Amino acid sequence: MPRCVLRLSLLTAFFVLAACASRTSLPPSGSVTQPTSAVPPVVVQEPEENARAAGFRLVTFADVAGWPASDVTPALTAFQKSCRSVTRRPDPSRLAISDDWLAPCAAAKSATDARAFFEASFTPVIVAEGDAFVTGYYEPEIEGCRQPTPDCNVPIYAPPEDLTRTEQPDPENPGRTKLMKGMVDANGVYSLYHDRAAIDAGALAKRGLEIAYAKDAIELFFLQIQGSGRLRLPDGGVMRIGYADQNGREYVGIGRRLREMDALAPGEASMQGIMRWLRANPDRGRALMHENKSYIFFQELTGEGPLGAMGTPVTPEVSLATDPRYVPLGAPVFLTTEYLNESRVMTPFQKLMVAQDTGGAIKGTNRFDLFWGAGARARTIAGGLASKGSAVILIPNVSANRLRSEMRLAALDLR
Questions:
Q1: Position 184 pLDDT exceeds 50
Q2: Is the Cβ–Cβ distance between 144 and 213 less than 8 Å?
């Protein structure tokens, strides 16, 4: 569901793995212990990229380092929320099918012992070698207003009515078509939709699309990267907004561009450092932001919290964004990584999470974006997170049994 699907993780969107190059490996306690009978991952010839094509290994909970001592209770609550849609979703990873989740979801309704529930209902699987890369995202809070004022006048738009999805010739595959976003004029002629520069220049002004206004264009730019956030209103109230659509134009990470320009000093390649550069160079900064042609449209949200791609509220330090080609949305994931805390001290992190979101920059095997919630702590940690780690995905037992059967048949075919 297109709620936060185009929210891009901070560090990847900014400078794509650059910080990872200086990261050391995890401490010994953060590793995944492989089974003693180490067999190569099963690689199935697939026409598309998915977990099967990447190779996978079914293991046991005894093989997962740190599992017995971990707190898994918050993940049970998050998983119960995922059951609202996980049983109705296709699984591009091809590790499971939607009906496989019916039994775990039924058992989750009355589960009181979280660890016993997960161990009875799921089988751990390691995709590829389980080596993960983890960034962070958060729910930003910026100053805003419902009606424009002289110091609060940066429009926040709802999706425009002329933003359409139509079948158009695929520029990368001659003779084929693909579903593309854009606009179609009265003569039926298709064109790309307005980019960020055009929208900032007023392409959507005076059309009644404004749902609110922000005080600061730079803060709104970064809120768009996150895909959802809070507006702190003049009367002390809070308006929550979330992803509603996107203009279909390409995303360009301005952090990467700043690194290419050698504009950032060592240690400045973070959200906070990029914002400082933009404020110190307003004209160049505005032009740089316009290089990112992607533009996010919002809707006002009410209820429990920001919504992930499943239409489910995401939970701080429990919800993950991931690539659904490799991790089924709704699946529990035992994640081991590390992060810099508010005091800039590297801190181990090992916890059972739930895949409930996606992101435009969250692509590939064992690629995760960890949701930290809202507030100053969440902003600081998410803005500095770019760590290696390890991941073990939990899939329903019926899914694992099907995979075992297919593996046995494949082994017979090889004889």
A1: yes
A2: yes
